Amino acid sequence: MMADKHFRVNAEQFKKVVDNIEGGCQADFFIALRIGRSSKCILKSIDGDEITVVNEIDGSSQFFKNTEKLLKSKRSNIGEAIEKGAFYLYSSDVDKFKDVL
């Protein structure tokens, strides 16, 4: 059964979801904004050595070695969004990661 609600994630849950993305696969998140949302696709390389953030608004990408670096990076606003309680896993992915949430 597919979840019908998006799931707000904290830093620990984000790390668990990213750790459980299989190499070459993805998880879809968004940052809730006042007037919409900013979608983020998180992918792991096939060997699992790199995390890629795709900013769906413009197709730009950022690359990180691990979730700690991603969350602390000034190049990404994901860490700040999590701190503010504005970072969500899309409902379509909640069931896929329910065991780690």
Give an overview in words.
With 101 residues, the chain is an alpha+beta fold. The protein is 25% helix and 32% strand. The protein is built from four helices and six strands, in the order βαββββααβα. The protein has helices at 11-19, 67-72, 78-83, 91-94, and strands spanning 7-8, 26-33, 36-44, 51-55, 60-64, 87-89. A six-stranded antiparallel β-sheet has the order 1-6-2-3-4-5. The two termini are 16 Å apart. The model has no long low-confidence stretch (mean pLDDT 92).
Distance between the termini: 16 Å
Tell me the structural class: alpha+beta
SSE succession: EHEEEEHHEH
- Which word captures the global form? globular
User: Largest sheet at a glance?
Assistant: 6 strands, antiparallel
Provide mean pLDDT, rounded: 92
Read across the widest sheet, the strand sequence of neighbours is 1-6-2-3-4-5
The total strand number stands at: 6
If you compute it from the alpha carbons, what radius of gyration comes out, rounded to the nearest whole angstrom? 13 Å
